[in-house]
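In this section we walk through a basic example: taking a raw amino acid sequence and producing a predicted 3D structure, encoded as C-alpha cells. The instruction is simple. Fold the sequence below.
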Amino acid sequence: MDIMPIKVVIFGSIPEASLILWAGLLLMGVKPQTRKIVIAGILQGISVYFIRRYVDFGIHTFVQIIVFIIYTYFIMDVKLIVAILSIIVSSVIVTLIEGSLLIFMDINLAYLWSVDWMRLLLLLPHEIVLGLIIYIGYKKDISLQNEFGWLDKIVS
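The resulting C-alpha cell sequence is shown next.
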C-alpha cells in the first residue's frame, strides 16, 4: 500500500489520468469535451490516492482501471466498449513506457516512491507520448477507428 503525497496527486495523478483518458478516447475516434476530461481526471486522481492507500500493490492497478472505465462510461457518455478499449489501450501505452524506463534505467521502485520529485519525473515520458498522441490525433485526424475498419463496427 502506498500513501501518495497530495502534491503527487495534484501534479501527477490528475494530469496523468486526464491525458490517459483523452488519448484513449481520441484513439477510439471520440473527440471529448475538455471540461468532461478535467472532471474525470480529477475524480480518477482522487480515486487513485485512496485506491493506492487501501488496496494491496498489484491489485490496485486492476481496481484503478475498473474505476477509470466506470468514470469514462458515465462522465464521457460513451459506449461501454469504447470506455473499456480507450482506458486499456492508453494504460498499455503507459505501462510499456514506464516498464521500459524502470528496466533500462535500473530504477529502484522503493526509492522512486520515497522521493516526491522522482515520482513526478517518472510520469513525464509517458505524459509526453500521450500529449503527442493527442496533438497528432487532433492535427491529422488520426485514430485507430480510422485505421482499422473493423473497429468502426465495435465503437460506433
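Looking at the output, two observations stand out. Residues 6-155 form one domain. The mean pLDDT is 89. In the next section we compare this with other chains.
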